[in-house]
Fold each of these.
Amino acid sequence: MTPPEELHKVFVRTRSESDGEWFVHQDLRERLVDDAREKSTNLTSVVVQILADHFNVPLTVSTRTTAPSGDYDKLIQLRIPSSLLTPIDFAAAQAHHTRAQEIRVVLCAHYGLTIPERPKKTRNRRPRPRLAA
Amino acid sequence: MRARIILDVPDAYLAARVAEINDQHAVDGEPFEPPLDVRSYVLERLRSVAEDELGLALYGWPFEATVEIVEPRDLDEPCPVDGCPRFLGHVGDHTHQPPPPLS
């Protein structure tokens, strides 16, 4: 009998805690909640299954049925097996993304949702002093 | 680039946030086993600030950090050594000097 695969805690922030800006489309969590309800499973299993399908990794996900809420909009907390984490990290490195960003991209693309662009937060340049004539 | 960051955060706040995350995960999926602890929570928040907020990974700086939990201190109490507000540069041995650089 093969030992169970190691699971890694992965936290995917969906919204900035500092300024409230969205890292994903605002409808993403609602779509995940709808899918979990429709399939009588839980939100994290839906996420892991989407990732497994995207990276073509055969997985058996948890079938625990829960009633996640669409209101909690800060964080998606996952437990991802090593066999799935490896291709996620590889794709992230290829795209110069972080692991969390790669997951956000895959999830939004799955539902055809766009990822909002983060506004640049550079300070305005000071005007140059005028040289005396 | 390396930096030593001292977070002076009340225990009760950390405990509440960790409990919130554990409770939420039990609703979103399977309960964490073992449950998330304070050290992992702080590490995750630091990672999120570095990667999600500052975008350090975009510049080729992978996030690495260690979290050391030290004796909790009451922010409301002034420093017993010289009465200074503790949250303003109060570090280590009460000298108000920054800690030595990491080796």
Note: Chain B has two helices and no strands.
Amino acid sequence: MWIYKKALQYPVNIKETNPKLAMSILSQYGGPDGETGASLRYLSQRYTMPYKEVSATLTDIATEELGHMEMVASIIVQLTRNLTMQQIEEMGFAPYYTDHTIGIYPQSAGGFPFTAASLASKGDPITDLTEDMAAEQKARTTYDNILRLSKDSPDVYNVIKFLRAREIVHFQRFGECLGIVKDHLNSNNFYEFNPAFDNNCN
Amino acid sequence: MTNTPAKNLAEAGIMVYDIQLYLDTHPDNTEALQAFAEYKTMYDAAKRDYESAYGPLTASKSNSREYFEWVNGPWPWEGGIV
């Protein structure tokens, strides 16, 4: 089970209104490499992970990603506060506004709704952890792209920098997890069997 | 920059969480275990300050017999929490 803590991992206090920037950042909420997908990916993968250190890592990183969903949503909420109809029309927010007003909906920057097709849970520890390392790098690239778009918004920039740094830490931890998995396997052939399925070989 | 309740909580919180993730893959690292205990003490102190400024961080910490303080703002996404 989870217990909700009423605080963000890194505080979000944004004064400006900028719906255009909010639309880009929305991708890290519900886009292909966003925090929703990250959390769901790790939460789903951990059930077939046969090694305790890796189960712990998947659980704890998935939990942190849930907190990051809330941070990303907080940025969007604050960037779209006090919007005028003129800003909605002039700052590229009219299509989103039409469907969601200023509600938070999980979608990509391009408007594609969140889809589980953007993540994998393959039931094979080497495959899943390789996916997780790639996922962290894709999220890092997306945050780098957002950083280039938020140069003039220091309150946003600092939060995105924090989130970007976390992706790098997670990549590092998943790399160590892959090492732990391989330590349990035959070093002459890591792919001899699937330790999450071929249980006689554990 | 002076440290505020929210800043202290965030600073101690990220240290505890970051070390927690490190310990997941290095559970026998005694240096990290010691750091984990030290930052947890810092976090617990920061949490007490934060809760006296902004109310309970978790629902179970609501103690009033008159009103369920948990429902009171500010909620984290609203901003203005320093």
Note: Residues 154-183 of chain A form the longest helix (30 residues).
